[in-house]
Amino acid sequence: MAHRTRKRRLLGAIGVTAVATGTLLATTTLPAAHAEPAGAAAAGVTVRPDPSYAGDEFEGWGTSLVWFANATGDYPPAVREKLYRLLFGDDGLDLNIARYNIGGGNAPDVKDYLRAGGAVEGWWKAPAGTTREDVDWWDSDDPADWNKNADKTQRWWVDRIKQDITHWETFSNSPPWFMTESGYVSGNFDAGKDQLKTDSVDDFAEYLVGATERLEKAHGIKVDTLDPFNEPNTDYWGTQLGPDGEPVGGRQEGAHIGPELQQKVLRALAPVLDKSRSKAEISAMDETNPGIFATNWNSYPQEVRDLVGRMNVHTYGTGQRTTVRDLAKAADKPLWMSEVEGDWGDGQSFTDMRPGLGLAQRMVDDLRELEPKAWVFWQPVEDYDNMKPGGESAKGGNWGEIQLPFSCTSKDTLKSCPIHTNTKFDTARNFTHFIKPGDRLIKTDDTSSTAAISRKGDAATVVHVNSATEAHEVTLDLSKFGRVSSRATVTPVVTSSDGKLEKQKPVRVSGKRATLAVPGQSVTSFLVKGVSGVAKDAAELRTGHTYRLTGVQSGKDLTLAGNGTGLVIRTPDTTDPSGQQWRVAQIRGEDNRKRYVLTETASGKRLAVRDGALVAEPDEGRRDDAAQWIASSTGDGSWTLVNAATGQLPDVGGQSTNDGASVGVWQPNSGSNQRWKVTDVTSG
């Protein structure tokens, strides 16, 4: 994003200083006995990675390039190279996704008032003497109105990293000043009102595509997606003028663009992209949190949703992640967590573990609840001067995994322009080093752990966060894998206050289980070798099995209504369960977007959505999309059921807990009245 004077504090505090590139892993040899760190371990947890519920191939880890790239692209070579290694090197964060910001740019006569690195140069070239009052001069078809040499500092980074990047995205924080209502790229004077002028929508589309084309041609890269927005339906982006009429407030580019105007932009952008030299698809809409994302997306008519190739959401707010997960499944579109950062602290520090733990838990939660195909930092490099005490806050802050001054000059050295890393840098590498592009995220039943299977399917990784101060044991239960070799091992790689990515001795798996102790306030990557496949009884939902579906909010079972077609909730009837048992048949898909048909066993009627209502209908003839359900779970034993035709979920009306309360359908909203626990009641 381009983030406001970020006042939100997300969780805690911060990191470990590393003024060098990453820490090499120590090597070990087999065999190895189970070894525990010093000190008694607290009560442990059991983690069950479940490959029966797997995502599509993970695309990787990434970053936006602004503002750090704009600020540092002309730094001395030694400083830039060290930053490069920390971000993209094998021992650094090892990122493979980059989001290039297409700057808007204020008028030539406006003195820069944006934060360090925030004034990203636009791709336009204004005639001599142009002022902020001149807004009708630009013509996308006139080469003289384009500056092909714009933004050299951010583009230095494009050239430096292009061999490391597998996915490029361009995005916009603000249109150029001459397309805005206020005449400034920092937002409207009323931050809650649309900033893009309606008569500039077509020009904005041409500008974004023209800049993307020129970026691709100049640097020999291929941009996969273009997102025209950044946190558009918010009141973050506002410009304030001082007594002299000059802007004094609003320190970064941003533009409120409400849902209706978003639709106009997307309708204008699609045909321009279609006729362009770029093969980029549209991504949208990089909203600040899942709840506002859902508000925007649900306002789009189907023909606008069809224009979007991938859905992008930020997680500065964490509620309703599963809403966006289910919206993406309903739309059958890939989903990215395309930006987040945070402080997790109470003052700038490079040794406090709390920021590292806060970031790690955020990553676990995002991966578990959103099921994204990629996870992207806002900017891992922050302005040290802005984060030190007296910067954005009295105590300073821990934004970024890496901090250096954005005020360095070409004469500085690594000594005069030092680079610091905090514990967020260290714990992030527990994810980025061991869950690799091509791996597949899988379900776990522990909210402090995330897991993935390797691209080849012959290994797995579990990343576990222990935020407590006490050590505890972690038992990995590998019984849901189809094959566990007699020589299977688990190797812990531990980041704590005692060390970074410390590779410990492997532990042999016995009885499909391995128990290992982890230190307090640590993040551990468990590298599992010798597992593959899926056990026959691994899946919670299995074809041919029969289940009770019990509402999480009501505690009552989904039941066929007395009229034989409607659905209600009722207390389970242990003597006569007819109407309350549902046979499952998987009919399509192999990943976490599998489709099922649910048939009530006594009546032979299947669950479907017809004419906007949840119905039980004879399970006869073609099982069309309206009779197909995509099942989603966070691993807690509860599921949502996404109708493949409408994207709606079975929903207990009014969140009732009364026997006989009706069950209809509603858009995903992460409510407990839309979640169902499954109990296998298959006879025999």
TrEMBL record:
The keyword Signal applies. Residues 626-682 form the Ricin B lectin domain. Residues 667-684 have a biased composition (Polar residues). Keywords: Signal. Residues 92-247 form the Endo-beta-1,6-galactanase-like domain. The keyword Signal applies. It comes from the Bacteria. It holds the Pfam family RicinB_lectin_2. This is RICIN domain-containing protein. It comes from Streptomyces indiaensis.
